[in-house]
Amino acid sequence: MRRLLPLGFAMAMALLPLVLKGYPITLLSYVGMAATAALGLVLLTGMGGLTSFGQAAFVGVGAYTTAWLTTVAGVSPWLGLLGAMATTGGLALLLGGATLRLGGHLLPLSTIAWGLALFFLFGNLDALGRHNGIGDIPPASLGGMALRSANAGFYLIWVGLGLAMWACANLLDSRQGRAIRSLRGGSAMAESLGISTFRLRLSVFVIAGLLAGLSGWQVAHVQRYVSPTAFDVGPGIEYLFMAMLGGAGHIFGAVVGAGLVTIARDVLQDVLPKFVANSGQLEVVVFGAVFIVVLQRARGGLIPVVLRWLPRATRPPPPDAPKLPRRAQPAAGTMVLAAHGLVKRFGGLVAVNDLSFELRAGEILGLIGPNGAGKSTTFNLLTGAAPPTAGRVRFLDADITGEPARLVAMRGLARTFQHVRLRPTMSLLENTMLGAHPRGRAGMLRAVFRLDRAEERQLRAEAMAQLRRVGLGDMAHELAGNLPLGRQRVLEVARALAADPMLIVLDEPAAGLRRPEKRALADLLRSLRAEGLTILLVEHDMEFVMELVDRIVVMDFGARLAEGTPAAIRADARVQQAYLGGVA
Amino acid sequence: MNLDLALLLAQDGIANGAIYVLVALGIVLVFLVTRIIFVPFGDLVAYGALTLAAIQEGQRPGTIWLVPMLAVLAFAVEAASLLHKGAAHRLPRAALVWLVLPALPALAAWPLAGRELPDLLGIVLTVALILPIGPLLYRIAYRPIADAPVLVLLIVSVVLHFAISGVALVFFGPEGGRPRPLIRAMFEIGDMIVSAQTLLMLACSALAAFGLWLFFERSIAGKALRATAVNRVGARLVGIRPGVTGGTAFLLASALAALSGLLIGPVTTLSYDSGFVIGLKSFVGAIIGGLVSYPGAALGALFVGLLESFTAFYDSSFKEVAVFAILVPVLVLRSLVTAKPADDEEDEL
């Protein structure tokens, strides 16, 4: 059912000009132009978690580029299309490269700033006709025939939009697309899976820019004139409204949102002046009110609401595929991870003080200690999440001190999080496939043209195998957010395993688990050890650790208090004192 | 460019900058307490100026209709939330706080406006009319999602600006307004002629910056307000009510906006929608100053004023481009200088 929707939609749109004539077709052309720009925001905001108020400015850059090229320089509109997309893409690369490292609200704020700067630039450049804009733009032509009529414009726009939607849908259903969708989980998760969040964000930003360029080109050659007012911050937020009203998490959200907003504006502009004087902007008031309600009540937009009523397809488990190549595990007993004199200071506080220990292939080592002993900080130092103040970390043959988490992950060190970090709106299978990200190589272009399918099948089969291994195989298509906490932790282990790691580091995996869940987790870890995997367990649940591990390192006040077998640790007077308090 | 010219431009820039300083202080104030980037602050300033101008011209200002309308909306939102919680017995009090109290100034202004009024009464009326707008907007748009990520609050802010400026067009009409200056005197300092109004603005800006700094750094009430921004749950645990502190912050902001409107109005003609660009330019200044300190915001806003007047000397049509374009390199520089946060918040839009 769901798979047939896009096809049915395309057919319906193709046949529409046979039924409708005149103004409705023109209106739908406007819907298409807006949807093309809003599609960029679906990718940027809904998928990548970046918000831009400047999309209209990018549309303007595209429109003005092709307008100038085709009127002043006199080139063909098709060259204008290339020019428009090259300019918007290039500008996105430049602006994104400069601003995408900004955290939180500063990035969207900067989009308002450069959006306004561009808007004022359009209105004040002589070459662009100042506030009057550029008129008499030639229509695009095909095989010597000028695409002048309303129907021609309609097809020009909707074929472009359809292709763009097809490309975006293919992209999102791929290795890089999954990584894009993981960006909203925060960069710590994505980086720990070996994903370069900056490069990925930049790519999405450029794609959104290219779509804005396409939209601007449509505007210029269908409307045949461009003027600055269409590219202000107001229209910019309207594109955002379209994306979020329709549903920024879905490709079709752009079309639904653009359709509703464009048609509603048309109706409101007809109706409102009959009731109120000075009603010039009242439709904006209505949109604003609706947008605020959407933000307060339904940030997912309309599409998820509708989808809830459609039957969910029952999907078969993925077919088998040739296995992905695996790393050779180090021989049992060789050194896997070593900390030498690790120190971490936060101002005057010494969180980790001269800590040294070694981890050997095939063992489970427990790193334990009372609350505040510095376990989590140590964890961050070992996995590259934070650099140590002094000391070295070695992983296999390499010195990884101060290496960023992403590179450490690529070397074969997989981790889980104390506060589970999964993408709740992605399926178990997709979450696990994220773990296998560094094992694939298909890029965005291959994804768009579906040349990545063989590799996708391999990644999917691998993820499925890991899900079965941890006992989640029968719920592969469930959403991760629907799992109870205990199973979410297990899912994180499956994701870590999908990376084909040589060492797994688990951050308090038993925290918040019920007793049977703990037992199941312990069984799983034992079976992994039996398969030759090396495991470091940071935990403060003594019972869980004692039953499971080969050796224990006890921390207290940032330093190593004791090291030895569980039995020896149990008998150690200093450990007892640290945990139970001193005997007066 | 010789020194005289530079001095002249600098004087002009500082006069402009003084406008932005006042607005920037309000923006920082709201941000520090509520994490809300209050884009419509500039609109409030414009409404203040327009209200005073209308009163002085013997007309009824648009705020007479705008404020009661917002009050009805705010009461509706409050009533819906109370009924949802099953607390219908608190409705009378809610009606008093959100409906009657905010509408009082409009009721008082109705018979008064439309005749010749003493200057001081006009000013008092203007301030009284602007004061309720901030808390009302907070109740309507922000409080239902006060725990949302900063990003969502930001989008709400931008949307809110467009929504209320559409309403403002209906009530104020498209024409601009310019109230009489509070003091008319001119001074000669060396070769330069400085209007007393500009000096008054500078003095008020400095006073406001210092006062806010003192209040938030040195008083318990100020610290309680700031604590809410840092951690809403924590603040609640130590007995601070985030809803109340948010309302207080917006009341303070409204007062500052009204004051700014009185001071700025006579210097530059404002219309229903000119608050947006003024607000955003001040905002650029506030960000340059770090968005966390009042003196910093004041300096940043002055810098914006100077940048504007020096760019205008070369080509007046590009001063806006310059002000907004400068933000990108400033932000990049800041992101290089300041340490990266441990992890960005998870923005679930």
Task: Please provide a written account of the structure.
The complex is a heterodimer of chains A (584) and B (349). By secondary structure, chain A is of the alpha/beta class. Chain A has 23 helices and twelve strands. In chain A, the strands form three sheets. In chain A, strands 8-9-10-5-11-12 form a six-stranded mixed beta sheet, with helices on both faces. Chain A is elongated and about 90 Å long. The model of chain A has no long low-confidence stretch (mean pLDDT 90). Chain B has a domain at 40-275. Helices cover 73% and strands 2% of the residues of chain B. In chain B, strands 1-2 form a two-stranded antiparallel sheet. The N and C termini of chain B lie far apart (50 Å). Residues 341-349 of chain B have low confidence and may be disordered. At the A-B interface, helix 4, helix 5, helix 10 and helix 12 of A face helix 7, helix 12 and helix 14 of B.
Present the secondary structure layout.
The complex is a heterodimer of chains A (584) and B (349).
Chain A: H1 4-19, H2 23-47, H3 55-71, H4 77-99, H5 106-124, E1 141-142, E2 145-146, H6 150-172, H7 175-182, H8 187-192, H9 197-223, H10 233-246, H11 251-271, H12 282-297, H13 302-307, E3 335-346, E4 349-360, E5 364-368, H14 375-383, E6 390-395, E7 398-399, H15 405-410, E8 413-415, H16 428-435, H17 444-448, H18 453-470, H19 485-498, E9 503-507, H20 515-530, E10 534-538, H21 542-548, E11 551-556, E12 559-564, H22 566-571, H23 573-580
Parallel strand pairs in A: 5-10, 5-11, 8-9, 9-10
Antiparallel strand pairs in A: 1-2, 3-4, 3-6, 6-7, 11-12
Helix pairs in contact in A: 1-6, 2-6, 2-9, 2-10, 2-11, 3-4, 3-5, 3-9, 4-9, 6-9, 10-11, 10-12, 11-12, 16-18, 16-19, 18-19
Chain B: H1 3-34, H2 41-56, H3 63-85, H4 91-112, H5 119-130, H6 133-142, H7 150-172, E1 186-189, E2 192-195, H8 196-218, H9 220-230, H10 232-237, H11 242-264, H12 275-288, H13 294-314, H14 319-337
Antiparallel strand pairs in B: 1-2
Helix pairs in contact in B: 1-8, 1-9, 1-11, 1-12, 1-13, 2-5, 2-11, 2-12, 3-4, 3-6, 5-11, 6-11, 8-9, 8-11, 12-13, 12-14, 13-14
